[in-house]
Amino acid sequence: MYIGEAAKKSGASERAIRLYESMGLLRVSRAGKYRVFSEADIEFIRLIKEGQSLGLHLSELKELVDGEQDFNWTKVLQLLEEKQQSIASQIKMLEVQYLRIGEYRQAIDQCNY
């Protein structure tokens, strides 16, 4: 299948697919000047998109690629653990901010502005 159909099946735009290829994340066979996508390519594009939805950057995903259209799953697990810890820290920070804002609102309310 060509890039238009690959975009429809994977949910990625044609532009995104070209970007993945230019970054070396995706290696697509060619027939003349046309890219020819397999079902494995579509699945790999979906994996890339799923990684992005979890907050992973394309540069991080590129570092995880191991060989032909596969990830080094040990590295993926490590990165996901790091991301999860980072998010947990951000949540704690936001909870503190949330409480402080509540305290300030309450203090301002008591001032009878």
Automatic annotation (TrEMBL):
Keywords: DNA-binding, Repressor, Transcription, Transcription regulation. Residues 1-67 form the HTH merR-type domain. SMART domains: HTH_MERR. SUPFAM superfamilies: Putative DNA-binding domain. InterPro entries: DNA-bd_dom_put_sf, MerR-type_HTH_dom, MerR_fam. It holds the Pfam family MerR_1. This is MerR family transcriptional regulator. It comes from Photobacterium pectinilyticum. The lineage of its organism: Bacteria, Pseudomonadati, Pseudomonadota, Gammaproteobacteria, Vibrionales.
